[in-house]
Amino acid sequence: YFNSEEWEGMFRLTTSEVKSISDYTGLTFKEVMELGISEYLLYRKECWIANLNKTEQGRELLKTLWRLQQTKADTSAIRQFNERKGVK
Known about the structure:
Layout: H1 16-25, H2 29-33, H3 37-52, H4 56-69, H5 75-85
């Protein structure tokens, strides 16, 4: 997803998702690999969120991601901002 430096390609993990899902679910690598695609994707998302929730930085990232997905304007925040700036 992001540009990486040349050396990083040499150390890219190929089973890290499987390991995360295995740790999260208690399934073996083989059992994880035999999951249907919908179950695999669900567990991948769930373990990603669970791992982020373990740290304050991770929770802040999740909060930011949630905020960026919001499509409704926060009218009270806009009003407060405008009041501070003296705009009516």
